[in-house]
Amino acid sequence: MLGRKGETLAGWGRAPVVPGHEVRSEDLARIADGRPLSRGLGRSYGDSSLPAASDREVVSTVLADRILSFDADSGLLRAEAGLSLDEIYRLFLPRGWFVPVTPGTKFVTLGGMVAADVHGKNHHKSGCFGAHVLDIKVRVADGRTVRCSPMIEPDLFRATIGGMGLTGHILEVAFKMVRVPSPWIWQESERMPNIEAFIAALKGASADWPMTAGWIDCLSSGAKMGRGILFKGRWATPEEAPKHAPRPKRRFSIPFDFPQFVLGPLSIRAFNFLFYWKHLRQVQRRIVHPESTFYPLDMLWHWNRMYGRRGLTQHQCVLPNEAGAGAARRFLEVLTARGGASFLCVIKDCGPEGVGMLSFPRPGISIALDIAVRKDTPALIDALNECVVKEGGRIYLAKDAFTRAEHFRAMEPRLEEFQRVRRIWDPNRKLRSAQSVRLFGDPP
Amino acid sequence: MRKVVVLGATKGIGRAVARQLAARGDALFLLGRDPTDLAASARDLEIRAARAEGSVGTAPCDLERPDDFGAALDSAGVVLGGFDTVVVTAGLFATQDRLEAEPKLARRLLTADFANTVVFCEEARRHLLARGGGTLCVFTSVAGERGRKPVVLYGAAKAGLTHYLEGLDHKFHDKGLRVICVKPGFVKTGMTAGLPTPPFAGEPEGVARDVVRAIDRGTPVVYTPGIWRLIMMVIRMLPRFVMRKIGF
Prior knowledge:
The complex is a heterodimer. By secondary structure, chain A is an alpha+beta fold.
């Protein structure tokens, strides 16, 4: 299978870019044959959905997007792996149903949501997406199609949830949708003076609010370090909600790659300053559009172009509760010592670990940083990861492009168990990605 | 509300067209090769359009088995209580290299994409005219615009089909038959999955929007994505010595 000339693939961050192309079909089981990896809408930032150096083709699941069944009593939905969250949102929210867990973009597929075991603003209450999955149909390396669930082939099930597509090609997913009282969100937001107050408020809010998350100004330092805005939300009741359905948000497109200076230190400072002081009142309460709550960046089509040709990466880690209250400050100090070069910094408290063998969240504080790729980015990621290792935390594979294998191993005592399951189902390592070569020691 | 029969609704552009028709409330009946696949596609349409289970009917119909065409359309007529629109997106595809290497496949493709598709359209035309007219929307291809190196055989079949549709339009327009010839450019579907993606490639949803609009307006010839009308205009004007040189 030779690569086609000039064709390249990249994740959402557009770094790295590798030679390769997608193969599309409605019949996933057929095109999965002999191919090393499936890819959905390509929203993982780094190299999770990219072929290893000696592979050229990945399976694109996006045409396999049929809904196979929906039970309007229990909310059980079964669909092919390429069904997008955008479609689920569009079709089901007006009927009073929604996914139990949503990531920060709706341009993801069901297969991708399982493979990355995505989490959202409600992680402290509802866990990861995998917690709501009843069964998965996987095409494993030897060509068999296996249905797995918490009862049937439980190891394969647990390894597939959060397994980054490395256990097999995900063909179908069955999960439980949830009923929502209205399609609107009741939101309360509050200005936070520093990181200590922020974390205390996040933890305090978690008992009463099903959705919480915050934005941090990562250029602030000293007494103001970690200042930002905390968002708390819940579905609005039918009485509170506007009587009309939320209209689809207008979408703006970033037409071309911005030059590098656009996201330079000055504009980062200005953006963060404005974002903080735009929130003039200490506390604001209002009804907001569901897309503004869950998918604020989806309104900017191709927003990754703002980061210029060299692309962006996201560093998302979770610092465990055991590391103590000072862990987040110590982490932010590593960042600010290097100029704090992050446009967006999102903070969230995580609930208990889920079923996925390699799933990212664990009880603690998750911090996500969007970083424009520059010459010194690998060094910055190294420094951040050294801090994560020291605090006993770990990183989110779906975002990663620059972590070194030794750091990853130090963060992931669970890797051994995951690799054991992979050896059973794929002894010859037919299934792999550029990321699994980089981090898991798969043959290149 | 239209009553629509779709041949080829389980895949690609046909699937996208069926979804858009279902979403706005048209009644649908699906024809295709594989009964299991048909049932899954029908269920998908029902759930998406919030309709009762079993409200989208299906019947097996294979472009390579022309003897079954009549029965398939008859059962569609019975289930829908008569239909006013027939959409044909089905067809075989293979690269020119493969068709040259496998004469049997070439014969199958030429038969299915030209002769049998015409036979199916004749059957559909009789059904539509019998109830006083209707819309017959058939997918040919920009490949049928001119003899070209990468689509010598496939293009020839589609060119024949295009001519047939034009003749049909001239002959039966007065009788109430609206013939719509859709000429898709390169669209990113499973059919074209083995080919390098050229510039101006379209997505099935966008093409389906163009097709649904054409069905409603009765547009006789549709290039989609629209840019392909210009591209093909240029290609048609190129002199022969240029066409011999270039690979397009």
